[in-house]
Design brief:
The complex is a heterodimer of chains A (90) and B (147). Chain A has 90 residues and is α+β, with helices and mostly antiparallel strands. In chain A, 17% of the residues lie in helices and 27% in strands. The chains are: A alpha+beta (90), B alpha/beta (147). Strand 6 of chain A pairs antiparallel with strand 4 of chain B.
């Protein structure tokens, strides 16, 4: 199982967990498993159309998965995935 | 909901907003969460990563900024507890764009900067439903000067 690190502001929606074990062969499947385990995370990660919100960045090691294969990026056993938000406003 | 911040740190935030004028300045607040209170211990004043033409009314802190912020917070035994940014010649209230991009739990401190002078700050948190910001009380701690 891969592990997924949750940023501080989203931990209250994951029962305070810093890291969650997630199942899935890809980043997208791992994210689906995460929100199945903690459904109240869904609205903060995905918009009403089911797309990842623009501030949600997923890093596999030091690499932004956008520069890999996006949510189709394969995951291996023991991979460490991190949600790193970017912050924007006006 | 309350944000505790020393006058020294609030002055640093105001100085950053004034220096960035007429563009928006932004950064991270590091500290501790104590129940529903966020206590600011230090800040990381960062560069606004938006393109030149947008920096007068938009700011961006990149994922790499956040990674660096997380690492600095961990080094200090703190957490990132919020974000500060300035509104040049605009009220210290969140915009619709601020709401769309906001994360829950964080405190969002907004400073109004008029004609290059920081005027006032108010702090806000996104509601669980993501539909609005609620204002939180800012408690400014006056440190003893010791002089």
């Amino acid at each position: 199982m891969a592990t997924l690190r949750i940023p501080t502001p989203l931990r209250p929606y994951a029962e305070g967990q810093t890291e969650v074990s997630v199942q899935g062969a890809t980043v997208g499947e791992a994210l689906n498993d995460l929100v199945n385990q903690y459904p109240s995370l869904t609205k903060h990660l995905f918009n009403e159309a089911g797309e990842l919100r623009p501030f949600v960045n997923l890093f596999l090691g030091d690499e932004d998965v956008r520069h890999l294969q996006g949510v189709a990026t394969p995951l291996k056993e023991n991979d460490k995935l991190m949600i790193i938000p970017s912050i924007a406003g006006g | 909901m309350k944000l505790e911040i020393t006058k020294t740190i609030l002055d640093q935030i105001h100085d950053h907003g004034a220096a960035a004028y007429p563009e928006e300045g932004a950064g991270l607040m590091l500290g501790q969460a104590n129940g529903n209170t966020r206590v600011v211990r230090t800040i990381l004043a960062l560069n606004n990563a938006r393109e030149d033409s947008a920096r007068h009314n938009r700011y961006l802190l990149t994922a790499h900024d956040m990674l660096a912020g997380e690492q600095e917070a961990a080094r200090l035994g703190l957490d990132i507890v919020g974000v500060f940014h300035s509104h040049p010649d605009h009220p210290d209230q969140p915009s619709e764009f601020d709401r769309e991009w906001a994360l829950p739990w964080f405190s969002y401190l907004i400073t109004r900067v008029d004609q290059g002078k920081a005027i006032s700050s108010r702090s806000w948190r996104l509601t669980d439903g993501r539909d609005e910001f609620g204002e939180e009380f800012i408690q400014v701690i006056q440190e003893a000067s010791g002089r």
